[in-house]
Write a structure and sequence with these properties.
Blueprint (H helix, E strand, L loop, with lengths): L2 H40 L5 E5 L9 E4 L9 E6 L5 E8 L4 E8 L6 E8 L16 E9 L11 E8 L7 E3 L7 E8 L8 E6 H8 L8 E9 L6 E12 L11
Parallel strand pairs: 8-10
Antiparallel strand pairs: 1-13, 2-5, 3-4, 4-13, 5-12, 6-11, 6-13, 7-8, 7-12, 9-10
Length: 256
């Protein structure tokens, strides 16, 4: 085999190993923390189960998960706007890491998740159908306990993202973990770049559409991130007003 071809194959295998490591670490992170902080959340009867607007700062309940195999991490910070509003900002340049909060709750009992996000630009080179293009300007991971009682890493993941080309509403298997992770397209293209966009999803319904024939386990955590390591791109994104509800809100309050 020519040396150049062997080097290309080795590089591809290394990227695959790194990506599997990334997703495995996210799942393991939520598994460990679920025992510590999940019980009170799971039994909380309030209509609003969880809310984060970052006005109290970037508290220690938000944990960053980086990966030893990836030298470059995203840069997370608490940012503010002219009106005094605070939000979570992520700057991503050929990098990957997530900022997550550890919660345990039933996606059937409390299915309503809302937030808003903003991006500077889309990742032009992204192509979610290929491993080499598995990047996006903004993502929200939702990690579910999996069907295997003996394997703590056998998780299911819904990944809501802002893509560059895929049609809104589409659901795709992740190129790296097609059996475990599904990507749900909420926004696409650059038309809304630079402005806050409100999102509201129904976890239980989305899981059933994404994983036909499966029942969702408990949610173990959520994480915000931008992802640019595969395409060697650069983007910045903002996240704010994350709310998990057990009842559907009557109206959507938004700040544009």
């Amino acid at each position: 085999m020519p040396v150049s071809r062997m080097q290309t194959q080795n590089a591809s295998q290394e990227r695959s190993r790194r990506k599997m490591c990334q997703l495995g670490n996210i799942a393991l992170l939520f598994s460990v923390w679920a025992f510590a902080v999940g019980a009170a959340i799971a039994s909380d009867p309030r209509p609003v189960l969880f809310s984060e607007d970052f006005e109290a700062g970037l508290t220690d309940r938000w944990v960053e998960q980086g990966f030893p195999s990836i030298a470059r991490r995203n840069v997370f910070s608490l940012a503010d706007e002219r009106d005094g509003n605070h939000y979570l900002k992520v700057e991503s340049s050929q990098s990957y890491s997530a900022k997550g909060v550890h919660l345990t709750f039933s996606p059937e009992r409390c299915p309503h998740v809302s937030w808003r996000w903003r991006i500077s630009n889309v990742v032009q080179a992204a192509d979610l159908t290929r491993k080499e293009g598995d990047d996006a300007a903004a993502k929200l991971y939702v990690v579910f306990d999996g069907p295997s009682w003996w394997n703590p890493l056998d998780k299911r993941i819904l990944l809501y993202l802002w893509d560059n080309r895929a049609p809104v509403g589409g659901i795709y298997p992740n190129a790296w973990l097609p059996e475990k992770e599904r990507m749900v397209i909420l926004e696409t293209g650059k038309a809304k770049a630079g402005q806050w966009v409100d999102e509201q999803v129904r976890l239980f319904e989305d899981f059933k559409r994404a994983f036909p024939g499966e029942e969702p386990g408990q949610v173990e955590g959520l994480a915000f991130l931008a992802d640019t390591d595969n395409t060697m791109s650069t983007v910045s994104a903002g996240f704010d007003d994350l709310t998990i509800r057990c009842r559907e809100p009557a109206t959507q309050n938004s700040r544009k």
